[in-house]
Amino acid sequence: MTRSSGRSALSGILNVDKPLGLTSHDVVDVVRRLSGQRRVGHTGTLDPLATGVLVVCLGKATRVSAYLMASTKRYHATVRLGVTTTTDDAEGDIVREADVTITRPQVQAALESFVGRIEQVPPTYSALKRGGKRLYHLARQGIAVDVAPREVEIHRLELSEWRPPIVGLDVECGPGTYIRALARDLGEALGCGAHLASLRRTRSGQFAIERACTLEQLEGAFSTGTEARFLQPLDVAFEHLPALHLSADLARRIVLGQEIEGREAAPEALQARAYAPGGKFIALLSREDSRVAWKPRKVFARPEEIAPLESGNARTDQRN
């Protein structure tokens, strides 16, 4: 991979198909080298064992990474029953083995108990911090740490493959869910132990694996100056919200941090994306009640970037 030269700083969102064996940070480093942009970050870690959708933000788009991190994720997981490991996945050392005499109905019944809001203990080998140190650093040093459970939400959990001792799972879950921990806990519920054998993220928010690009495709695009075909604008992070197309005067008020009236625009919505004349995305708006004015929640433009067109009222466009 080579770093591009002679390019202005890029902004946008990449939907990358992370390959096996690389960390999420490795992918970020590759994008930095190719783009020449230092402001690059991902929106949800995938372990080296995992593949699939890794959303990477460049430049100004890093300002929306927190919103993308909070999105729903989908995975296809392969779980190996009967073997427990130190890391809860195939990369760890085996600590226990057991015969697997589990039936398919037993697995399906166990899965039902994990759907909804549940308490989950993150893996000991994880990037969470304790006393300023990553848990996996402490675990590698043999330091035992009690990891507190936290609430996560699993929206859908289905048995998609049955080849005992291998089972395939399709998972749709909220942010912060560890699929490794889910595999571990499923094994405990079944009494035989288990670990995560493989994992592929198939969707992160609105970003699907079918539209993801490989690192090889990115390299080719940057080398030929056609990377724009993979870069998506930062407002796609809010495409599920109604769009308010504002006059120049109202748009300037928003980027200056002022409120605007707009009770007739998106009457039921409490959040919206705002655009200046010409279609420039300028801000994320919010309000506590549909009867009150819109407030700028996050601004992405400066007053001088708004064309001096005629005044008018806000109008709404709920098309994505």
Question: Can you lay out the helices and strands and say which pair or pack?
Answer:
Blueprint: E1 12-18, H1 24-35, E2 40-42, E3 50-58, H2 65-69, E4 73-81, E5 83-85, E6 94-97, H3 104-112, E7 116-120, E8 129-130, E9 133-134, H4 135-140, E10 150-163, E11 166-173, H5 179-190, E12 194-204, E13 207-208, H6 215-224, E14 243-245, H7 248-255, E15 271-276, E16 280-286, E17 295-299, E18 315-317
Parallel strand pairs: 3-12, 14-15
Antiparallel strand pairs: 1-3, 2-3, 4-11, 4-12, 5-6, 7-10, 8-9, 10-11, 12-13, 14-18, 15-16, 16-17
> Main sheet?
9 strands, mixed
How many individual domains?
A: 3
Given as residue ranges, the uncertain stretches (5+ residues, pLDDT < 50) are 1-6, 316-320
Give me the oligomer status. Answer: single chain
Q: What separation lies between the terminal Cα atoms?
A: 35 Å
| Mean pLDDT across all amino acids | 88
Overall form: globular
Number of strands: 18
The helix/strand order is EHEEHEEEHEEEHEEHEEHEHEEEE
Measured by DSSP, the beta-strand proportion falls in: 25-35%
Query: In CATH, what is the homologous superfamily of the largest domain?
Result: Pseudouridine synthase
Characterise the protein shown here.
By secondary structure, the chain is an alpha+beta fold. Strands 1, 2, 3, 4, 7, 10, 11, 12 and 13 form a nine-stranded mixed sheet that branches. It has a five-stranded mixed sheet with strand order 17-16-15-14-18, with helices on one face. Strands 5-6 form a two-stranded antiparallel ribbon. It is globular. The two termini are 35 Å apart. Helices cover 19% and strands 32% of the residues. Helix 1 runs parallel beside helix 6 (215-224).
